[in-house]
């Protein structure tokens, strides 16, 4: 079974991924895959540089410079997504060729990137905006304004809820959300709890 996990940045998808991994599932974190591809796929970097000149310097992507161009411009974000979704999906498909018994794909753009079609079950992770802003600032070392612009550039919570089979709300403590994740995985009846 392939589980698709989605939701906005800073919602807590990593908590569910950690529980999948702890139970022997293959975890495919598309954000991590994207960052790995930025180091290993010169074609991806070239495509980004061609679309957004000056964002790649000495073979390295300047994420903040790119972000300042795309997070406030929906058309620019669409161009970037078309480039990155294709590269990430190809890598996810390659990793799934081993046919794992259980895998989880974590992708903010699970549907837009064509990854949802690979999944048997999808789940949205949602959280209050203020919690997300605080998490992003702490995790990524960014300003409040930049965190809010990243959140605003993504789909609203309701969009994720409408498109997914299930929804987990991360609105309590870390331990409470972890318990929700465990309970959800147990409903899938795919693995024994550790």
Beta-strand proportion: 5-15%
Strand order of the largest sheet: 2-5-1-6-7
Helix content percent band? 40-55%
Radius of gyration: 17 Å
Structural class: alpha/beta
How far the N terminus sits from the C terminus, by CA atoms, comes to 19 Å
Could you name the ranges where pLDDT drops below 50 across 5 or more consecutive residues? none
Q: What letter string, H or E per element, gives the SSE order?
A: EHEHHEEHHEEHHHEH
Let me know the average pLDDT: 91
Helix and strand topology:
Elements: E1 2-6, H1 13-22, E2 26-29, H2 30-40, H3 42-51, E3 56-57, E4 60-61, H4 63-70, H5 74-96, E5 103-106, E6 121-126, H6 129-140, H7 144-152, H8 157-163, E7 166-169, H9 174-187
Parallel strand pairs: 1-5, 1-6, 2-5, 6-7
Antiparallel strand pairs: 3-4
Helix pairs in contact: 1-9, 2-5, 3-5, 6-7
